[in-house]
Amino acid sequence: MSLKSRFLILGSIITLIAISAIQAYLIYNTYELKKKTFAMDARNSIAKVYSTQEVDSLFWIYRNDFLEQLGLYEDSKITKPEVIKNLESKTNEVNKAFLKVYEEGIKENDIEFKVKIKISVTDIILLDSLSAVNDVFLDSEKDSAIFILGNNFSNEDAILINKGTWQKELENSKSFKDLHFKTQVYMNLVDWESFVVKELTSLLIISILLFVFVIGLLSYSINNLIKQKRLAEIKTDFINNITHELKTPLSTLAITTKTLTNKYAEGQTEIAKETIQVIDRQNKRLQNLIDQVVNNSIGYDEIDLSLKEFKIAPFLEKIISDYKITLKKEIVITSDFENLEQKIIADKFYLGTAILNLLSNAVKYEGTIINVTYKYNEKTKQHIISVTDNGIGISKKNQKIIFEKFFRVSEKDTHNYKGLGLGLYYSSQIVKAHKGAIEVESKEKEGSTFSIIIPK
Questions:
Q1: Cα–Cα distance measured from residue 28 to residue 273, given in angstroms and rounded to the nearest whole number
Q2: 119 and 183 in contact (C-beta within 8 Å)?
Q3: Could you tell me which residues are beta bridge partners of residue 345?
């Protein structure tokens, strides 16, 4: 793959990651905005309920009771811990009425999720006439807050919405001048996350679908780019290769034609005879090249089979013996057939062509020891014809595309072996026409095994 294509793919992936990050950021921002909107709506609803006359009356019950407790404390009739205990006890009396008023008020504001409220006392401080601290019942820096109204939930799950101080001038008190009664109001949004997600469901679905679509589109584009580039390389290689193959017979024909038309060849019967024989051979060579391109380019559905039943072992032996004649002495072909009487239903011509292509490839790619085997698998009811060689082997990457049209095994982008890249493609089409399959097992520098599998 060229550097330009790699940069294009890398740029596309980086762009996709950037778009995904932006989309995720926008969804997160929308989520946070919805969260703040819910909190604001809840806060406004609480404020409306909190400012009603009913709630204010309940607070005054609480306050008046505390003032009575304070008077008893000043007269030494009860202790400070008893004042705090009575303050907490008043919660049980007032809180039921408060929760009823609060829940009815929240319901009127049409809040879709449940909002809990918690009111706590954090500081109770008594001042003297000089505004100096005279007595402390509750100090937020030392003591825990006292829950008085609402729902007693953890502050960790809550949002602080208000801090208030009830200041009361104690006119009838001899010891104290002013009372500072500090409170905090918290709210807790119950299951608000599910409501936010519900609101964002359509946005999330659309975002996910768009993300999947963009990934699919990018994947398709990159895959298509790689295929187109490989196809362009294959076509260029095929054109260069067929041009090279045609060059020799055409050059020879040109020379022989000049020889025939040369004045020195006039009346020379022997020269004319030899020249015509050369022209005839080169013409056949050209015709064979053209036939190879035309015939080997057809698909399996275009192959018209003439099926016959015959014994497979003698058939294979004849193919091997005929092919051996054309080989050099250093190339050895052996055979191993499990069942000599087994019959097969196939087209002799086409099946023979497929096997010869495998043998030719084994020799072409430096195979010197070739073994042809046959066995019949009773369990799967399949005929298996295998051609094993000790040649250069095929890489795992190339094994996936070895049966594609015009493909040829190359070394570092250089084709060292002649051919049009149609032999294995044609063999696979022949096997497919027999409703079978062709498989390859190979290791680089160790050799390959091609297996033709034809069902009974």
A1: 89
A2: yes
A3: 309
The pLDDT score that the predictor gives to residue 322 is 83
What is the C-alpha to C-alpha distance for residues 365 and 362, in angstroms, rounded to an integer? Answer: 6
Task: Report pLDDT for 415.
Answer: 45
Question: From CA 27, how far away is CA 183, in angstroms rounded?
Answer: 37
**DSSP calls for 326-341:** TS-TT-EEEEEES-SS
- Check: CB of residue 189 under 8 Å from CB of residue 154: no
Question: Going from the N-terminus, what domains does the chain have, and what CATH number goes with each?
Answer: 52-190 (no CATH), 302-455 (3.30.565.10)
CB 434 within 8 A of CB 453: no
Give me the numbers of helices (H) and strands (E) for the chain, helices first please: 9, 12
Crossing angle for the helix pair 423-433 and 348-364, to the nearest 10 degrees: 150
Q: How far is CA 31 from CA 25, 26, 45, 197, 255, in A?
A: 10, 9, 21, 8, 83
**What pLDDT is recorded for position 110?**
72
Write down the pTM of the prediction: 0.46
φ and ψ of 346, to 5 deg: -160, 175
Residues 6 or more apart whose CB falls under 8 angstroms from that of 103 comprise none
The rounded distance, in Å, linking the Cα atoms of 315 and 337 is 11
* Mean pLDDT, the chain cut into blocks of 10 residues (456 residues total): 72 83 84 81 84 86 88 89 87 87 82 82 88 88 89 86 88 85 89 73 82 84 79 69 65 74 66 76 71 65 88 92 82 90 91 89 89 93 94 87 73 49 83 94 92 93
pLDDT for 343: 93
Three-class DSSP category at 323? helix
Return d(Cα 61, Cα 53) in angstroms, integer.
12
